[in-house]
Design brief:
The structure is a single chain. Helix 3 packs across helix 4 and helix 10 packs parallel to helix 11. This protein is of the alpha/beta class and 468 residues long. The relative contact order is 0.08. The strands form two sheets. A nine-stranded mixed sheet has the order 9-8-10-11-7-12-13-14-15, with helices on both faces. It has a six-stranded antiparallel sheet with strand order 3-2-1-6-5-4, with helices on one face. It contains 15 helices and 15 strands. 33% of the residues lie in helices and 21% in strands.
């Protein structure tokens, strides 16, 4: 019979005596096809000594299974056999545990062997957008923009570490004391950051940014109150007209979601190259080349940075280049790409306002090109970037576009900006929600010639005029 387990050495009998042999099998547990082998179980401990029945039963079950064989079986089949094994071990060892608790233990074992342990329940919950593990005792979640402490706990810090290492190894990365920082992704596209001791003083920390399985488009953003219909129409036209767009905002403000929504308007005939630290963009076009950075190995060699990938992307005949997040010297290469025929390129940056975004791009260019004069950098920014979309996660938990800003040009040594739309706060609703309006300046932007070239100048003007 094919088995899914390892043989457990027979233990000397001890009171209470083992139950009589089941028909067709030796004394002790009858073998379950594919899961266990016949084994003489260890003597059951006195019930008074079992202060935590679940933990005791778990240890007994783990003695009789081989997790490696689970990888060859379907999760549903593994769960079914584990439930049966838990039930039989509980009866054999005289552990008093209810049927729901037995099913829960079986599911926990399946999650540990085939998934990411206790985090599986949170990963399955589509209402949760962020999961933050601060050691084994404290796991925070974000639901609908609000943070709260969950009831989930790990067994110990070693359990957290094993789950983190499993996440990293699934995409060919490693994390341990010698390499305590890692960015990776889960099979569903969720972004993961892990910090190990000694950098994390209270145990391993895991931060997971989940992405909704439901594709978010501008219609969904209007329904959620993230943008107005007129603003959505302007963004649609901007994406179609191959404007170079910088999406700016703080952590968790919805930058990646906005990039995904804008990318839906790209023509399917265009070749797109995406560059990310941890791949999370979800483009729908058929001709997409996805590139991902690589960290250095244990010897400190083999690192491939975003700047390396950006330089290589220019040799791949892209129509558009999309950089997941610009945070360093690659900003200069991104500006060069925007200025050399790759119109319609997108990138994201971390900044609090559109003006701060311009300053941050300038500072990042200086990180890699200290010899460039400030005026030359600002000239590059003014000629490369057409529009900045500023996002913010507000105190009611909703993500909103707070500014849609045109980069007009250079006056003297100052990059001039024109706010096409701004979000104006006007009060608070009965449930604490932020109320406001997207106000349009109705000033025609300098890129109208490009909009007219694509034949979209009339709907663009209509969208401006329909805004409050």
């Amino acid at each position: 019979m094919r088995t899914f387990g390892r043989r457990v050495e027979a233990q000397p009998p001890a009171p209470p005596p083992p139950l009589p042999a089941e028909p067709g099998g030796p004394a002790g547990l009858a073998p379950i096809a594919g899961l266990t082998v016949a084994a003489t179980p260890a003597a059951a401990p006195p019930l008074a000594a079992v202060s935590k029945p679940m933990q005791a039963l778990r240890a007994q079950v783990l003695e009789r299974i081989d997790p490696r064989a689970a990888l060859e079986m379907a999760p549903a089949r593994v769960r079914e056999q584990l439930e049966r094994l838990v039930h039989e071990v509980a009866g054999q060892q005289r552990v008093e545990i209810s049927a729901p608790d037995q099913a829960q233990l079986a599911q926990e074992l399946v999650d540990d062997m085939l998934g990411f342990g206790p985090l599986e329940d949170l990963l399955r919950d589509e209402t949760i957008s962020d999961i933050m593990v601060n050691g084994c005792e404290r796991v925070f979640i974000e639901q609908r923009g609000k943070l709260s402490l969950s009831k989930l706990k790990f067994r110990n810090n070693a359990h957290v570490a094993s789950i983190a290492q499993k996440m990293a190894s699934s995409v060919g990365r490693r994390v341990d004391e010698s390499s305590p920082l890692v960015d990776c992704r889960l099979p569903d596209g969720s972004r993961v950051n892990v910090v190990f001791p000694p950098l994390a003083l209270d145990g391993p920390c895991i931060s997971i940014r989940k992405f909704s399985k439901r594709k978010v488009d501008f219609a969904g953003m209007i329904e959620n109150g993230s943008i107005s219909p007129a603003l959505a129409r302007i963004l649609e036209i901007a994406a179609r007209c191959r404007l170079n767009i910088v999406v700016s905002g703080g952590t968790g403000s919805g930058k990646t979601t906005m990039m995904n929504a804008m990318s839906r308007l790209i023509e399917h005939s265009e070749r797109i190259v995406t560059i990310e630290d941890a791949a999370e963009l979800q483009l729908q076009q058929p001709h997409v080349v996805r590139l991902e950075t690589r960290p250095a190995n244990i010897e400190g060699k083999g690192e491939i940075t975003q700047r390396d990938l950006l330089k290589n992307a220019l040799r791949m005949r892209p129509d558009r280049i999309i950089v997941g997040e610009v945070r360093g010297a690659e900003a200069f290469d991104m500006l060069q790409a925007m200025n050399t025929g790759h119109d319609g390129s997108f990138c994201t940056i971390h900044a609090n306002t559109a003006r701060d975004g311009v300053v941050r791009i300038e500072n990042m260019v200086q990180m890699g090109s200290m010899s460039l004069p400030v005026r030359a950098i600002r000239t590059q920014i003014a000629s490369a970037v057409d529009m900045i979309v500023q996002l913010e996660r507000m105190r009611d938990g909703k993500r909103r576009v707070t500014q849609l800003t045109e980069v007009v040009g250079l006056e003297g040594d100052v990059v001039t900006l024109n706010d096409l739309f701004t979000f104006e706060f006007r009060g608070e609703g009965p449930n604490g929600e932020v109320l406001g309006d997207w106000v349009c300046s109705r000033v025609r932007p300098g890129f109208m010639q490009k909009v007219r070239y694509y034949g979209l100048d009339v709907p663009f003007v209509q969208a401006l005029e329909s805004a409050p």
